[in-house]
Amino acid sequence: MDFFSLFKKKESSKDVAKERLKLVLVQDRTDIAPKFLEMIQGEILEVISKYADVETDEIDIKLTRMKRDDSTTISALVANIPFTNPRNFN
Amino acid sequence: MGEKQKGIAIVVTSGKGGVGKTTTSANIGTGLALKGKSVAIVDADIGLRNLDVVMGLENRIVYDLVDVVDGNCKLTQALIRDKRQSELYLLPAAQTKDKTAVTPEQMLDLVNQLKEKFDYVIMDSPAGIEQGFQNSIAGADMALVVTTPEVSAVRDADRVIGLLESNEIQNPRLIINRIRQDMVNRGDMLDKEDIMDILGIDLIGIVPDDEAIVISTNKGEPVVSSGDNIASKAFDNITRRIMGEEIELIDLDANREGKMSKILKLLFNK
User: Fold this and answer.
1) What is the ipTM metric for this complex?
2) Domains located in chain B, CATH noted
3) Are B125 and B132 in contact, with CB atoms under 8 Å apart?
C-alpha cells in the first residue's frame, strides 16, 4: 500500500479530513487523551533507541480501528518507526 | 395509557447546530403529507423556535408545546395546520421559556398522544446533547442523524449515534446534507462512502447543497413541495425510504452533467 502511495499525487484535503476524523473518533469513543499517545510514543522510542538510531522526524504512531474476523472492531495502536544503524550486540 | 399506538415517531437529530435538522424535519414532514400521510412535526428546540418560520407558519401561532405540557391549552388547540397540506400539523416550541420547562417524561406522554392521532410524528431535535436532546428522543421509534461533509459535523454525529444507541434507539439512519459534488469530484470534500465508513450506520439519503433550499426557506415553503429540482427530489427519496420503499440514491453527478451540457450547448449551438 505504501508502495502505491509513492505514485499518488499530493494528498487531497478530504483524505486529510478522513484521517483526522478517524483519529479523533478513536479518542472520543475510547475516551483516550491525546497525552496517552505522547506518553506511549516517548517510552517506545526510549526502548528502540537502545538498539538503533531512530529517525525521529519520520515517526508515525496513531490509534486506529481494525476490523476483526467476526466484523466487530477494536482499537489498535499502529506504529511506524524507521531506524538506522542497528547496534551490533554480537 | 394502554391504547393502541398507530403512529411512528421519528427524531431528527445531529449534535452540531446548523447542519440542516430543521430544514430536514420540515421537508420530511411535508414529503410524508404529500404522500397522503397524516403528520405532526414537533419543534423540540425550546427557547429557539425555528420550524415555524421554515414552514411559513409563524403568524398562526397561538399556543406552544410548553402551554400543552403545562395544561394551558388542549393539544389540538396548539397544533397549527399547514398552509397547503391539510394533514400536516406543527406543534411549535415555546420561544421565551426556560429550556428545562419540559421533562423527558412529559415529552414521552405528548409523543404518545400524537402517535394516536397521526401516522408520523417528526421530532426536530435541538443542537447539543443536553436535556433538549433527551426530550426530543423520548418516545422515538426511529432516528435520523443529519450531518454535513465536515469534520466537526461528522464528529458530533458519531457522538449522537453513540447516545442514541445507549438510549436503545436502534439502527439510526444517516442523512448527509449540503454535499457539493464538484468539491467531492476534486477530492476536497468527504464523500458519502468516507462518511459511512467512519460512522458505520446506514444511509437513508443525501441532499445536495442547492440554492433552491435557500430560496424556498426564504419563502417559508419546504423545497420538497416545489417538485422540479434536485433538492426536492432528494427529500422525496428520503420520504419514500422512510415509508419502506427501496430506491436508489440520487445521482448528484447527473445534475452537474446537465449543467455542463447546457454550457456546451451555449458554446457550440450558437
Assistant:
1) 0.79
2) 8-268 (3.40.50.300)
3) yes
